[in-house]
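Predict structure. Chain length: 241.
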Amino acid sequence: MNLDAFHPTRRAMIRGLLLASGFAPAMLAVLARAGANSKLPVVPGVQELSGDVRINAAPAQLGQLVNPGDVVRTGADGGCVIIIGEHVYLIRERSEVEFFAEDFEQDESGAISGQIKILTGAMLSVFGRTRTDFTTPFATIGIRGTACYIDSQAERTYICVCYGRGELGGAEDGKPLETVTTQHHDSPRYIYPKDASTRIEVAMAVNHTDDELRMLEALVNRKPPFDDKLQNKGGGKYGDY
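Prediction complete.
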């Protein structure tokens, strides 16, 4: 993967994730871990930090647990990777995310479900089997056992359900807008405020990569389902976005 094409913060985050999470600084090692038969320990909490990252206004620390109701904020040079239960989150710079402040549930196995608020900024997430609901100022996204990239912008929300099923709606009026089922970044969307002439619009897949998804899934001993499909097809390479 050519890291030079990315924003400096994002480039440092990817390099840091490769090193700090036990990956060798080569994508081959990441793919080997993602496809390994042996199970590696899943370590909850903050896995990687870059730049200014704060949890509840205090500087974040490596290994720090993120609990229901915690708010994570990143500065202009900030980014982090967090594991909560079966889920992994890569938070971009200039973001504010409130984790599971509402409808939080944890079953006997430790699986977590609930609601996450992305007030501003962007986050790439991979999930276990439980349902998670996202809200932004303009959109709601209900997902279960999937992956998604969400960018809460001033004038609209960008959503890519990278694989799996997502129920998209308007946050201001609760209006259902569309249910998408995707295999490989098939149905990115923009969602606009309720008074906009268009509420939902087809978008391109941008600003997140397959290799990032592979790395995040590997941290919880999984791999993206599109890699299984690739193997079954006998070769080729899916592109990055």
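Summary: The first helix runs from residue 8 to 20.
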